[in-house]
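Entry 12.
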Amino acid sequence: MSIRFSPRCTASPPIPAPSTRRPARKAASRTLKRGYIHPPADVQIDQRMLIDLGVDDSTFLRTLFDALKPGGFVIIYNICPRQADYANGEQYLPWADGRCPFDAELIMKTGFRLCIHDRDDSEAVRAMAHTLGWDQGEQAMDVQNDLFAHFTLLEKPAP
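Predicted 3D structure (tokens):
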């Protein structure tokens, strides 16, 4: 079984591990955000803005789990802007909900060890943005109010 990603997904080739004892690492960007995969049921959204994984969540996680070597990690790290106030009529922004799209219970049921689930990493990403100058110049971003990050860390247990 294969997993189909949106054309917006960019996957990098495996990064060579520095030693044969370490698991290979792979990366994908801009795909695994709750807003893209599981937006709130009560919002109107153009379906073209969503990502269809091509399989249900359980199958996706199982395929990811099976692809990892024992002791391997998966990190879902999402940087996103502030979410619109959609409860008061503003347009919902799927890219602004950077939480993990998968429920903790399903992640663990798949066999992963859930190291961290939806940890807020906004302060670190804001420091990075400041270092890179995103908050400077003519088109400066308000990094304190418009930049957020969340991450989830999973491990395939070693036998």
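Annotation: The chain is about 25% helix and 20% strand. Residues 27-155 form one domain.
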